[in-house]
Design a protein that fits this description.
By secondary structure, this protein is of the alpha+beta class. Helices cover 38% and strands 18% of the residues. Helix 1 packs parallel to helix 4, helix 2 packs antiparallel against helix 4 and helix 5 packs across helix 10. Bound molecules: 3,4-dihydroxyphenylalanine (DAH).
């Protein structure tokens, strides 16, 4: 039996492919296999009770060791199996590759890139500022002095050195005016931070896209024209907008731009809270004081600005019900959004 075992081991060692291993199995364990025949041909009647027992045990042990060895060899062979190219005997390099998960674009990135395209088509440059900002650019230069109640509306994360995490992308306005002067057309997409109590529609970290256009003889008509062009491009249809008065210290006049609800067409539904309108873009004509902070000649230039909630827009465009999904870091979330829509 020990000879049989050693022989079997050696043959299994040489058998690399599954068919070869199957041959070894048949040779030893098949109906006419060496081990089977050994058991069949033994005349147990001639053996003493003692011999019967010890022979039977050794035979059973040989059989189960043999079965286990064949099983292990087959498993190893199928793990190591490389598809063979019939012609060369080497690996088949024409087989398709394995499916590697390469990740997916985040919905904010998708919307941001789409908006950048649209605005670049209208002559806007894309600029990014600083997520850690000074109090001056985030507030003072936007006509929000230290004692102004508008500061209370943005619960700010202050750093120990007196700087802050920008509460809005408007902080870029005066920086850009200082750097580039008038005329200017720029958008500033980016991440903003506020100390919000988080729920389905409030996050402490969210994205805005600020826009600034300063040129000669700019009026509200230009603002509406650009906003309508933008919204039609984003939603792939003509949208109806309306302006309501809105207060922001850095614009005068200031507006809330609403779009007619894209879900119900203005009749009233749950999305628009039965009003037929959705508040989407706060905007206005740049306050002369902001232009002065940016060292722009206010006798020659005027402009408009807007602050689009990128996160909100992505929620509307893709029908995302909970803002907390954006920062969840879950690839299964990102994988659901088509690269172009
Ligand atoms: N920065 C404002 C906010 O985050 C939004 C805003 C309002 C931006 C009016 C603008 C604007 O550019 O003109 O609440």
């Amino acid at each position: 039996m020990e000879d049989i075992w050693r022989q079997l081991e050696a043959e299994l060692d040489r058998a690399k492919s599954l068919p070869e291993i199957e041959q070894v199995r048949i040779k030893y364990l098949g109906r006419k296999g060496v081990i089977t025949v050994l058991a069949k041909n033994t005349d147990f009647g001639k053996l003493s009770a003692e011999e019967k027992k010890s022979f039977g045990q050794r035979l059973n042990s040989l059989k189960s060791r043999a079965e286990e060895a064949v099983r292990a060899a087959a498993e190893r062979a199928s793990r190591e199996a490389v598809p063979q190219d019939g012609a060369t005997g080497g690996p088949d390099l024409s087989l398709p590759g394995t499916d590697r998960r390469l990740g997916a674009m985040h919905p904010i990135s998708l919307v941001q890139r789409e908006l950048e395209d649209i605005f670049q088509g209208m002559g806007f440059r894309v600029l990014t500022g600083y997520e850690v900002e000074t109090e001056y650019y985030n507030f003072d230069a936007l006509n929000i002095p230290p004692d102004h109640p508008a500061r209370d509306m943005q619960d700010t994360f202050w750093l120990e050195d007196g700087r802050l995490l920008r509460t809005h992308t408007s902080a870029n306005q005066v920086r850009a005016l200082e750097q580039f002067g008038a005329p200017i057309r720029a958008i500033f997409p980016g991440r903003c931070f506020r100390n919000e109590a988080m729920d389905a529609s409030h996050e402490n970290t969210f994205y805005q896209l600020e826009g600034l256009l300063v040129d000669r003889d700019i009026s509200v008509a230009h603002l509406i024209g650009v906003m309508k062009t933008l919204l039609s491009a984003v939603f792939h249809k003509e949208v109806t907008v309306r302006l309501r008065p809105g207060f922001f210290p850095f614009v005068e006049p200031g507006f809330e731009l609403d779009v007619q609800c894209l879900i119900c067409g203005g009749v009233g539904c749950a999305t628009c809270k039965r009003s037929g309108w959705i508040e989407l873009i706060p905007c206005g004509l740049v306050h002369p004081r902001v232009l002065e902070f940016g060292r722009v000649d206010t006798s020659a230039f005027s402009g408009f600005a807007f602050g689009l909630g990128l996160t909100r827009l992505a929620m509307m465009k893709f029908g995302i019900p909970d803002i907390r999904l954006f920062n969840s870091g879950d690839i299964r979330f990102c994988e659901q959004f088509p690269v172009s829509m």
